Amino acid sequence: MIEHIGGNPDANPNPWSSLFKSIVILRVGAGLLLLKYHAWAALHSAYDFLWEEQPWEWVNHFNGAGLPWPTLLAPASAIVLGAVALSWITGFLTRLFAFIFLPCVGAFIIFAGEKGAIHVEAGWLYLLAAFTLLLFGSGAVSLDKLFHIGENWGASKKKKGW
Question: Does any domain span residue 75?
Answer without folding.
Answer: yes
